[in-house]
């Protein structure tokens, strides 16, 4: 073929440019278009070309405000950076993901020197399950109404259920136990309420599950002998000679 001949690939490329067809794509990993990531954790996303890798240039990551993420930005470089992992792979790294960093991030590149193509991913921030007020040993008094404390925090919000000695306590099926938002209410504590309770938190959106073992030990209220005096009289001896040598 002569020096002025046009190859098949060049014809395809010219057709793609004229028709506005973007026949190649960028690939962001992990693959999901919406990703839930825990606050305070290090997070890495990568962007690369799926095909014709040698024809891509000017790869960059854009933040939710459509600003180019740069390592020389003094305001963000300690928490957000980019790294060229391979010639065709650009990573976006969150040093310690914050709630304020949730949003849509876009990877863009120039294909064949003419077309700008891009792909986006949305980052949602989540709080992992944490136990705010859930002592692992609790001591209700016999004959009283008592709440076994178990306050849980997570984002998205968790569902909390209870087990006692391995058996699930079903909400609404018992007058003795009432499941509250921050604990398990025992309506009238008896000696049979002794045992190990499990407070179980589940976040359906993320599949996170965590359990807290709580030992409940029923105590009897202290009693006083009515014959014992309720006050004690203290008699002192005053002397004008106190302290005299």
From TrEMBL:
Gene3D superfamilies: Immunoglobulins (2.60.40.10). Residues 1-23 form the signal peptide. One of its GO terms (cellular component) is axon. Keywords: Disulfide bond, Immunoglobulin domain, Signal. GO terms for molecular function: cell-cell adhesion mediator activity. Residues 30-118, 143-215 form the Ig-like domain. The keyword Cell division does not apply. InterPro entries: Ig-like_dom (IPR007110), Ig-like_dom_sf (IPR036179), Ig-like_fold (IPR013783), Ig_I-set (IPR013098), Ig_sub (IPR003599), Ig_sub2 (IPR003598). The keyword rRNA-binding does not apply. GO terms for biological process: axon guidance; dendrite self-avoidance; homophilic cell adhesion via plasma membrane adhesion molecules. Pfam families: I-set. This is Ig-like domain-containing protein. It comes from Homalodisca liturata.
């Amino acid at each position: 073929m002569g020096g002025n001949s046009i190859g098949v690939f060049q014809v395809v490329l010219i057709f793609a440019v004229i028709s506005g067809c973007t026949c190649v794509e960028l690939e962001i990993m992990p693959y999901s278009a919406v990703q839930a990531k825990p606050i305070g954790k290090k997070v890495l996303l990568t962007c690369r070309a799926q095909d014709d890798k040698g024809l891509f240039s000017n790869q960059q990551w854009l933040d939710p405000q459509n600003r180019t993420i740069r390592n020389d930005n003094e305001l963000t470089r300690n928490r957000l950076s980019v790294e060229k992992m391979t010639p065709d792979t650009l990573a976006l790294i969150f040093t310690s993901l914050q709630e304020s960093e949730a949003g849509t991030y876009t990877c863009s590149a120039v294909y064949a020197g003419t077309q700008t193509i891009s792909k986006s991913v949305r980052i949602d921030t989540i709080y992992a399950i944490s136990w705010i007020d859930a002592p692992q040993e609790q001591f209700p008094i016999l004959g009283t109404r008592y709440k076994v404390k178990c306050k849980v925090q997570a984002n998205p919000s968790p569902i909390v259920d209870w087990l006692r000695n391995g058996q699930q306590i079903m909400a609404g099926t018992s007058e003795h136990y009432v499941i509250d938002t921050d604990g398990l209410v025992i309506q009238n504590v008896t000696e049979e309420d002794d045992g190990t309770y499990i407070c179980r938190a589940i976040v359906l959106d993320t599949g996170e599950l965590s359990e807290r073992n709580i030992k409940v030990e029923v105590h009897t209220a202290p009693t006083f002998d009515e014959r014992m005096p309720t006050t004690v009289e203290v008699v002192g001896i005053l002397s004008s000679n106190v302290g005299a040598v």
